[in-house]
Amino acid sequence: MRILDWIKNREVKSEFEKAFSDLKRMGEIEPSAKRTYELLRELDFDTSDSQSELLISEFNKIQYQSNTNSFFYFYFPIVTHILHYKPKYEKDILGYLIGPNFANGDTETKDLIPLIKNAMEFKLTENKNYLTKESKSWILNELPKMEKEVEREVQKCWKELNE
């Protein structure tokens, strides 16, 4: 049985390492990215609230400087992986998916959910390891139920734009 566990863990880590290779590389120059990667590796349904809050805190410290598309595609696998295991943190991190698309002119809630699903399909055709199976599951099964939460993020964007 231990051999099967070892094989399974090796496969999971391999998938994880492939999906989060950009985060790992960023961790070489930014400590919060390194810590996020380490905490993300340990994330599951049983992760304690204190560990989850530490993950969210470190994640929010990452300063990824780029255009809106690169910003979205950097954060996309991280946010969706976290939300698969810890949906209660959507208020803290869903904006990383909505904000860049809003900045690109996608301001309608009804368009944003399909846009995010299409982004998943696009990236997976480029790189089959772009997302973990947990991320894919969240996008396909949970995101479509989150119209109200997406609308809240759109309204936040409008408020920030008008300030």
From TrEMBL:
Protein's name in the database: Uncharacterized protein
Species per Swiss-Prot/TrEMBL record: Mangrovimonas yunxiaonensis
Lineage, top ranks: Bacteria, Pseudomonadati, Bacteroidota, Flavobacteriia, Flavobacteriales
